[in-house]
Known about the structure:
The structure holds 2 protein chains of 2 kinds.
Chain A: H1 3-20, H2 23-42, H3 48-68, H4 70-74, H5 76-98, E1 100-107, E2 111-112, E3 118-121, E4 133-144, E5 148-159, E6 165-170, E7 176-178, E8 181-199, E9 206-211, E10 223-227, E11 234-241, E12 252-253, E13 260-266, E14 269-273, E15 278-281, E16 284-301, H6 305-333
Antiparallel strand pairs in A: 1-3, 1-16, 2-4, 4-5, 4-12, 5-6, 7-8, 8-9, 8-16, 10-11, 11-13, 13-14, 15-16
Helix pairs in contact in A: 1-3, 2-3, 3-5, 5-6
Chain B: H1 2-26, H2 31-56, H3 64-85, H4 93-108, H5 124-150, H6 153-162, H7 168-201, H8 209-230, H9 235-259
Amino acid sequence: MNATTLALREGLARRVVRGVGSPRLTLALIALVGLAVIGHARVEGGLAGPLAAAFAMAAANLAAALLTNARLRADLALFVFHLSLLALLALAATGRLTALTGTLELAQGEVFDGHLLTREAGPLHPDRLARLRFVNDGFTIDYAEGWRRGRTTNDVRAFGQDGRAVHHAIGDITPLVLEGYRFYTTSNKGFAIVMRWVPRDGRPAERGTVHLPSYPLNEHRQAQSWRIPGTSREAWVMLDLDAPAIDPSRASTFQLPGAHRLVFVTGGERRELRPGDNISVPEGVLVYEGLTAWMGYKVYYDPTLPWLLACAAVGVLALAAFFWRRFGREGRGA
Amino acid sequence: MEAQLLGAAVAGYGLAGSFALVGTVMRRRLEMAVVGLLAGGLLAHTASLALRWERVGHGPFISMFEVLSSNVWSLTLVFLAAYLRVRAVRPAAAVALPFIFVLMAWMLVTHPDDGHFPATYRTLWLYAHVGFGKVFLGALLVSAAVGVLMVSGPPGARALRAGGLPDEARAEQLALRFLALAFVFESMMLVTGAIWAQDAWGRYWAWDPLETWSFLTWLVLAGLLHARFTLRLAPRATALAIAGVFVLAVLTFFGMPFVSTALHKGAI
């Protein structure tokens, strides 16, 4: 390859990059991103692919403009603002690849063992959930008249790698942060039935909870089906309350119901249980120990969060500096 | 007392708007009267908002009445500051104050609910987010009002000349200054909103209707500034586009609560 060919290729590459970074193309891509955002908002389930493609094209245009546009590079504030925009796009993309969003439920006294009920993670997510441990030590929720939810305070103990427990009070705008994973309390919470199962085959007895649907959202649907552990036996339970556990006619707090019956159905047999009652089935004995509460949590992990904030702050400051100088100069000149 | 003070504020704002219109149409200098009435109205409105805050236990962030009332207050405050600081803005009062008057009329026919203040609103980020949003809308109102005068033919041009803007280019520069201010404050509004959303709902961005349309407003504003500075749009085209951005921002601020009450009102 001779020098002339090399020069031609370099010239062509420069023209291509300049074309990609053209200000007119920027305008078209802004319109394209806008259309993709509208499409994403209007289509059921969103249009993540087209939205990502539109942002990727905008990022390419921005990168090419930063390389080739002399006016952009001549003004430090303008350059930094556009560089911040590019970094924000890159970080948001990295975040999508590495982030995790999930949900979990823990009854009072239950330890989080890394298991999530729902989970959505990017392909590059470094899964460290299994080594996190915390226990739900109970929560309080204030209600205004009409079941309008107020402050939520959830006591939790988080365990470090050395097994040492640290107490945290979380809730509403205060998450529990463990190794970058942020655990948030949610409006999803309710009552859990505490059962002890004593199998007849000699296996050890086990104690567990059955979470009833969220309360008070599902006030009249406090029923749940589940399978007795180690058997193929299906069971159905329903919490029968004489009065709402949270009085909607006055300010109150989330509390366990006082007088209640537990309707228990298995194999066509129906029984009403009170705390301490048990029911015998061919595979063993179930003991109804009482009620407790469960809290639903949302977990979020995104390692780019502090960098996103830093880039956004630098970008806004650079933008303000650019306009301050531009219009300040014009103002003084006028 | 709260209602009486609000009534006094509405009267002050209404009279200020009327004086501004009369001054523009009749070419009379009524600026001191406009300033006095706006300032008096603002004082009464501030006292009314403070009394309501004390009574219901939270700021004006929840019900439509509160949102409209606080926006009337903040738009008037920003416009009055611009009116006092930048002489050339004064003719724009004939456009800006009638718009604020329309918001006031809407406020007066809205039920003044106390609303429920969600626990996720108990954060300083709420004040930062809402505060930046209010400055954004106020600056955009000033910019759009100047823009509307620019495209209003001879009466608008005459009013702008009376304010010391002899040609379209200077009027456009004034509109652009406030547009740039709006862009900076809208950016800050989005950033602080994302920080708050991360704390409150465990995600910094989720494309809910209010987030989507706020981002679209930011995008259109960015596109307009980009087009103006790189493609050299004509001043009238810029003025029309600014008015378009303002309409989009108003629909986002005041229209979206009718489309979605989720999340931004706090899940119960």
